[in-house]
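Input chain follows. Return structure tokens only.
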Amino acid sequence: MKDGKQHEFLKVTVKHVATGAEATFLADRDAQTSPEDRQLQHSRLGSQMYSRSASDLTPSLSSSSMPNVPARDRVHMCNIKTDLAWFSPYIVLATLSFLPHSFPLVDLAILLKAVHRHAPDYTLKQHQCYWFAHAVFFTAKNLFGGVQTSNEIDSRGKWRRLVIRKEESEEAIQKE
């Protein structure tokens, strides 16, 4: 949550089995904005690669009559101390753990592409950041046998105190 606005994203940490070296990256979705909005975001953020949450974009995006716009699904290499500060404060809603070699990074990349292909447009009421995080999380869990630890999973998917419904997309995405 940033300035009272909520934005769901995935924080992925991968660990090299032999060396123990770790890398962390973030995956999220927001609405593709105009070139002017992107320039404004980059000037405010400097070298950080994050944008404002979808609810913090132009007023037209908060309208329930907003037309579909292209989704911007992103993956960012992450510096834990500086990059996650942009999303602070945030809470961990759930954790998904996998056995070594059970969920190769290439499969995660393919899954992210399948999720985007399934819903290439950002829609405020259906295919927004909440849907994206849910679709990737539960499809990965179902396909690769992840073990879920829930922390605040019931706190997920609220925008301006409204519960955002999630579309059951995991089965369709698994077929793609």
